[in-house]
Amino acid sequence: MKTRSVLGRPARIAAVLTAALGLAVAAAPLTGTAQAHEAATGTLSFSGDPGEYTTGGQSATYTAGAVQQFDVQGATDGNSVFTSVVTNEGKRWTLHLAAPDGQKLTEGTTYTGALRWPYAQPQDPELAFGEDARQCDTSTGSFTVSHIAFGPYGYVREIDATFEQYCNGATVPARGELHAQMPEPPAELTLGMTLDSAGKVNSQTGQITVGGSVTCNKPAQVAVSGNVDQVQKKATAIGYYETTVACTPGAPVPWTVSFASIEPGTAFRSGAATLRGAAKADDRDYPATVNTGQQTTQVTLDKA
Question: Is the pTM of this model over 0.85?
Answer without folding.
Answer: no
